[in-house]
Amino acid sequence: MKHLLSILLLACGIAQAQPALKTSVLLQPATQTTGVSAARLARIDALLQEYVDKGWIPGATAIVAKDGKIIYHKAIGYSDVAKGTPLTKDAIFRIASQTKAITSVGIMMLWEEGKLLLDDPVSKYIPEFRSPKVLASFNKADTSYTTSPAKSEITLRQLLSHSSGIGYAGIGSPEMNAIYAKAGVISGIGAPQGVVLGDKMKILGTLPLQHQPGEKFTYGLNTDVLGYVIEVISGMPLDRYFQQRIFTPLGMKDTYFYLPQSKYSRLVPLHTEDRDKKLAVTDATASRGVNPNYPAAPGTYFSGGAGLSSTAYDYALFMQMLLNGGTYNGVRLLAPATVRLMTTNQIGAIERGWGHKFGLGFELVTPQSKAYTALSEGSFSWGGYFSSQYWIDPEKKIVGQLFINLLPNSHGEIHDKFKNMVYAALE
């Protein structure tokens, strides 16, 4: 007992002797940043301008921070090519699947509070997911299908790691696209006024899975389901939960599911490529039969997988929080151990391509995939449907992202070039 008491007292003494950890706060650009070549960073300007001048992209907003200091933050090109409207750093972009990281953090906050366990069955919170079935056969002629019983229930962990067997509406496999369309399940982008998340997620729970839970990685509506789980547990609509628990604490003033009217003018019009690969402004979702004004209009559908819009700076605050181990500017959203858990491989030996693995909401750079990227091992990242990508590199203490509102983007290689140039500027 004396020995144990001595150990405890020693531990307390060590803890008291440790200096308080400094929380990194995202600062505006410094005149000079140690360990970074300003001349080499400036080459990013030329890269982005080249893609604009060649008509490959309308414009881009990029931001990079190292050690809590912004080392690059510029907007190059146009918000609207046809009108010649210059793009600005405070422009608001549809971030689509970059919403997933925020929803994943929201779920893990509830996990820390003891409101859920990662291996809870989804049916505990949404009964319609009880006794799931797996697609066995599909008749293309009439979209009928047969199913077989799933070997197990879907878990929250499988939703976070996209291994549940749930597919994506509109951009998934032909079979699942047809099944979801017939049932009225949507992708989550620009839903018509009056449609609500819970109704669609309950329908989704009755539809077949693409494969057995936990056996494959299938990118799908998993995070939309998690968004509804947040609503069920918290008793709040997802937009209010995000605003109260994440956006306001972090100082994210320009991130919304549906923009206030005062900010409509800052929304970047979505561009597309015509048959001649020329850029033209289009609406965000008209071809999908949903609200063409999204998100510059009122809405009721809060998609945890794809619904948010934001600025490069706002989202960088969120990334910096994760890089800091769950805290930003004196506000802690998650414990460091929770961030480590989220960025640990959760799919085991399941193949992701290029050696990448997947955690709880993020793609992970592994020793194997490090051979194909400038990012350090342990970096985590993802992107959005309208040609946006972000990454967080704990080893180099870097957060970075590139926003381009363009669909499709025939020159997606710009994202890799951008990352390469960032790392080439490190001394």
Description:
This protein has 427 residues and is an alpha+beta fold. It has a domain at 38-90 and 256-280 and 309-424: DD-peptidase/beta-lactamase superfamily (Beta-lactamase). The chain contains twelve helices and 16 strands. It has helices at 2-17, 38-41, 43-53, 99-112, 156-160, 174-183, 197-204, 222-234, 238-250, 312-323, 336-342, 414-424, and strands spanning 59-66, 69-80, 85-86, 93-94, 133-139, 144-149, 270-273, 279-282, 309-310, 327-328, 331-332, 357-358, 363-364, 380-384, 388-393, 398-403. The strands form five sheets. The protein has an eight-stranded antiparallel beta sheet, sandwiched between helices. Strands 4-9 form a two-stranded antiparallel sheet. Strands 5-6 form a two-stranded antiparallel sheet. It is globular. It starts with a helix and ends with a helix. 45% of the residues are buried. Residues 1-23 have low confidence and may be disordered. This is CubicO group peptidase, beta-lactamase class C family. InterPro entries: Beta-lactam-related, Beta-lactam/transpept-like, Diverse_Enzym_Activities. Residues 44-410 form the Beta-lactamase-related domain.
